[in-house]
Design a protein that fits this description.
Helix content is 42%, strand content 15%. The protein has a domain at 5-175 and 206-232 and 294-311: NAD(P)-binding Rossmann-like Domain (Rossmann fold), CATH 3.40.50. The strands form three sheets. The protein has a seven-stranded parallel beta sheet with strand order 3-2-1-4-5-6-10, with helices on both faces. It has a three-stranded mixed beta sheet with strand order 7-9-11. The chain has eleven helices and twelve strands. Strand 5, helix 4 and strand 6 form a beta-alpha-beta unit. It is globular. Helix 1 packs across helix 6 and helix 5 (182-191) packs across helix 11 (312-325).
């Protein structure tokens, strides 16, 4: 059966899980990947791979042609890049290319994967919603700015008639985090004993399988031009590490690192990255983001889409076991 669904970013963490959920429903997918993309996360899945790049609008148009539905999951989520314009090229112009190509090919519905990073935060630390005010000037770093601008493009096209629904995943955890993501790297570093302390911050964690299901639900039930936070449980970083300690048998760190010390470490690490060209171990933008607790309320997605809310602790356990089984850390 010829695929009628296109997934960009399918070789990544969220994208590969979207493909898995589609496959579980008997829906084969066409996937847009680069020639250099690792297909490890898609091994054994019924996909039709087409090669292209978000910067190449003709390759995107070719990938979209013949599809009824598009999941645009691809993004550059680095917190540091020697050339920050690469993030804007992928996240802003690339998103515009995909949405315009899909609209021109008259697809029935597009689900665009934004990020809670494009949303506003509450100054008092309470959970933000899709309606919490957000401005470009408040976005920390090029990643957040690029995702904010990309989301604004999606909203602009939706107002003009483009059939796009926006989802904003929070912090997904679980299996098949091949690269791994920043959150997956926290789990790996913890398992390797490389986290002697923590900063006073917090995240909204969610099972990556629930995020993938949320994409399919948004395709079926989401309202065009609306945003839906795909999240679950707000947790202080201290608590996340304590859960990882219980799951792994490793002691959780007890030392809270002052923000000023973390900031200084981020400055040194980022300066070293500029000299070596290797990504910093402690990205300065990541430290700056950690100044506020990134808590969110997924109530709208639960009410309107039926977003599942499976145990975050179980999702962390899946991540621990997957990283151990696949050689990221010693079993």
């Amino acid at each position: 059966m010829k695929p009628e669904v296109l997934v960009t970013g399918a070789s990544g963490f969220i994208g590969s899980h979207v493909v898995r959920r589609l496959a579980a429903r008997g829906i084969p997918a066409r996937v847009l990947v680069r020639q250099t993309s690792s297909m490890k996360a898609l091994a054994g899945l019924p996909v039709e791979a087409v090669y292209g790049d978000l910067a190449d609008s003709s390759s995107i148009r070719n990938a979209v042609r013949g599809c009824r539905f598009v999941y645009h999951v691809a993004a550059d989520y680095r917190l540091w890049a020697r050339n920050p314009q690469e993030l804007y090229a992928s996240n802003v112009r690339g998103t515009t290319h995909v949405l315009e190509a899909a609209w021109a090919e008259k697809v029935e519905r597009i689900v665009y994967t934004s990020s809670v990073g494009a949303l506003g935060l509450c100054s008092d630390g309470s959970a933000a919603t899709e309606e919490t005010p957000a401005v470009l000037e408040a976005m920390v770093g090029h990643y957040k700015r690029s995702k904010y601008l990309a989301e604004q493009e999606a909203l602009r096209l939706a107002r003009r008639g483009c059939p796009v629904v926006i989802v904003n995943p929070s912090t997904p955890v679980g299996s098949w985090d091949v690269k791994p993501t920043r959150t997956g790297q926290i789990v790996v570093d913890f398992l390797k004993g490389r986290m002697p302390g923590f900063v006073d911050t917090g995240l909204n964690l969610v099972d990556v399988e629930d995020v993938a299901e949320g994409h399919l639900l948004a395709m079926e039930k989401g309202r065009v031009g609306e945003r839906y936070i795909l999240g679950s449980k707000n947790m202080p970083l201290r608590e996340i590490l304590e859960v990882l300690g219980r799951l792994s048998g490793r002691p959780a760190p007890k030392m809270q690192v002052p923000w000023a010390v973390a900031y200084a470490a981020g400055c040194v690490s980022s300066a070293t990255a500029w000299l070596t060209g290797r990504p910093p171990a402690i990205p300065l933008d990541g430290v700056r983001m950690a100044r506020k607790k990134m808590y969110f309320d997924a109530g709208k997605a639960v009410r309107e889409l039926g977003l599942p809310q499976h145990s975050v602790e179980v999702a962390l356990e899946k991540a621990v076991e997957w990283f151990r089984q696949h050689g990221y850390v010693a079993a």
